[in-house]
């Protein structure tokens, strides 16, 4: 708790009005890789508590669209459409697609993590499975030149997921933002430009 309170990113998040320090992970990656622009359409999977959606709404502007999806409740954010539910369920996916009105997406981001059981092998497998589901969603909804950003934990299944990313996108890079705690095994994978045959039907 003491380390959390002293964390400069926690302090800065409170000062800037972000709901969590995770906002600075997205900000750093977005600036390095020029991810965000006015008018873009973004789907934020695993959005709670909403700090990434706050960043997205600010950068996408009034002409952009941000859809935030999570099992947990996300308090309203100006410029963000919140859908509460499990995107793996058909009715939730239908709600997302109804909001998109058939339009392809510029950016899909996923900061999803499973509820941790403390059993490392099980938690890792569930985490990778969420990554795979997010990749499937992204490949089905992105524009051909679209971008997918996903949090993945290094460990069992990670090399296979990285390989799946490389089969799906023309360019795949890994990012470890400064705001990511050093002891964490999390890594952010960024895929750009869908390969032929892996995008929307």
Question: What's the short story on this structure?
Answer:
The protein is of the alpha/beta class and 201 residues long.
Molecular structure report:
With 201 residues, the chain is an alpha/beta fold. The protein has a single domain (2-194), classed as Vaccinia Virus protein VP39 (Rossmann fold), CATH 3.40.50. It is built from seven helices and seven strands; from the N terminus they run αααβαββαβαβαββ. It has helices at residues 2-6, 8-16, 23-33, 51-60, 90-100, 120-141, 158-168; strands at residues 41-45, 65-70, 80-84, 105-110, 142-153, 169-175, 186-194. A seven-stranded mixed beta sheet has the order 3-2-1-4-5-7-6, with helices on both faces. It is globular, with a radius of gyration of 16 Å.
Topology:
Elements: H1 2-6, H2 8-16, H3 23-33, E1 41-45, H4 51-60, E2 65-70, E3 80-84, H5 90-100, E4 105-110, H6 120-141, E5 142-153, H7 158-168, E6 169-175, E7 186-194
Parallel strand pairs: 1-2, 1-4, 2-3, 4-5
Antiparallel strand pairs: 5-7, 6-7
Helix pairs in contact: 6-7
Uncertain residue segments: 1-5
Class by helix and strand content?
alpha/beta
For the largest beta-sheet, the strand count, sense and barrel status come to: 7 strands, mixed
Write down the overall geometry: globular
DSSP strand tally: 7
What would the keywords be for this entry?
single chain; 201 residues; alpha/beta; Rossmann fold; 7-stranded mixed β-sheet; disordered N terminus
């Amino acid at each position: 708790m003491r380390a959390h309170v002293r964390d400069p990113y926690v302090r800065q998040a409170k000062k800037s009005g972000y709901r969590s320090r995770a906002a600075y992970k997205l900000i750093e990656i977005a600036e390095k890789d020029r991810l965000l622009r006015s008018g873009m359409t973004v789907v934020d999977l695993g959005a709670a508590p909403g700090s990434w959606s706050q960043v997205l709404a600010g950068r996408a502007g009034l002409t952009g669209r941000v859809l935030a999806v999570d099992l947990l409740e996300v308090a309203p954010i100006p410029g963000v459409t919140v859908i509460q539910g499990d995107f793996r369920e058909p009715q939730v996916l239908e709600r997302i697609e109804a909001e998109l009105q058939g339009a392809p997406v510029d950016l899909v981001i996923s900061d999803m993590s499973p509820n941790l059981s403390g059993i490392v092998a099980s938690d890792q497998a569930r985490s990778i499975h969420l990554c795979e589901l997010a990749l499937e969603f992204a490949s089905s909804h992105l524009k051909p030149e679209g971008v997918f950003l996903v949090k993945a934990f290094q460990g069992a299944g990670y090399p296979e997921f990285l390989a799946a990313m490389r089969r799906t996108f023309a360019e795949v890079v890994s990012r470890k933002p400064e705001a990511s705690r050093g002891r964490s095994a999390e890594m952010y994978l960024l895929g750009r430009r869908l390969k032929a045959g892996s995008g929307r039907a």
